[in-house]
Write a structure and sequence with these properties.
By secondary structure, the protein is mainly α. The protein has one domain. It is built from ten helices and two strands, in the order H-H-H-H-H-H-H-E-E-H-H-H. Helix 2 packs across helix 3, helix 7 packs across helix 9 and helix 8 packs across helix 9. It starts with a helix and ends in an 8-residue tail after the last helix.
Length: 242
């Protein structure tokens, strides 16, 4: 936990975020902390792991012109829009925790939302860095790395790794009651990130949706699926939600 708290220092945050992004990250961290130390730990873990994967294969991504923040000169650092696009849904999900009897599975949904976003970040960054063949998810037509809605085997496996790492963080914080709940988080993350790719390939540009808006929708899908599967597990349904 001490390592996570150290990551909140302005000097360290400035490596991951723009100056304005640092201010917003502090605000976000304060709001997460007001709900629980656990949620703050989830948020910090997401940002640390997300920043680390951004730096993988960075030279290749720079050469292709698809590195994070390259077009804005941020050198991989995120801005306030990234902060809220990534953690806006988990933050909203903390609100029911202030009730005397919060809804069931809400804490698992917060984990599921963070796992979904980290899965997306890992899939995108690993796919751009190491993806050999990139396909548009809706047509399976080959497209250049970094294309909205593009997927690759390497990126897909990277996404599963990102979700698994977030799941391990949640498990260490006692947020995963059973093995089935862990599988539910992984499956919800996988389905939500693929839904994000479909949105990127179809309606994102025609509807004028920003990447942050799409990320928000994706995290909401991940959280909703996690809650649905959590209810299915509680009801003893064999396939979580069927």
């Amino acid at each position: 936990m001490a390592i996570l708290v150290a990551a909140l220092t302005p000097k360290y945050l400035s490596r991951m975020l723009t100056p304005t992004g640092v201010i917003h990250a502090w605000l976000l961290g304060s709001l997460l902390l007001s709900s629980s130390v656990t949620n703050l730990a989830l948020g910090i873990s997401y940002f640390l792991l997300g920043y680390a994967v951004t730096k993988l294969g960075y030279k290749r991504k720079l050469s292709l012109g698809i590195a994070e923040g390259q077009s804005t000169g941020r050198d991989g650092r995120r801005g306030p829009e990234n902060v809220w696009g990534s953690a806006g849904v988990p933050l909203l999900l903390t609100l029911p925790l202030y009730l005397n009897v919060p809804p069931p599975h809400i804490q698992l949904a917060i984990l599921g939302s963070f796992a979904t976003k980290l899965s997306d970040t890992f899939a995108s960054e690993i796919g751009k860095a190491y993806g050999k063949t990139t396909f548009l998810i809706t047509t399976l037509r080959r497209v250049p790395p970094g294309t909205e809605g593009a997927v690759s085997l390497e990126g897909t496996l990277g996404g599963l790794l990102g979700a698994a790492l977030m799941l391990l963080v949640g498990h260490s914080l006692s947020l995963v009651p059973t093995f089935k709940h862990g599988l539910a988080v992984l499956l919800a993350s996988f389905l939500a990130t693929n839904a994000e790719s479909v949105i990127g390939a179809t309606i994102q540009e025609p509807w004028g949706m920003t990447n942050e808006t799409v990320n928000f929708v994706m995290c909401a899908i991940g959280a909703a699926l996690t809650i649905s599967m959590g209810k299915g597990i509680a009801a003893g349904k064999k396939f979580f939600f069927f």
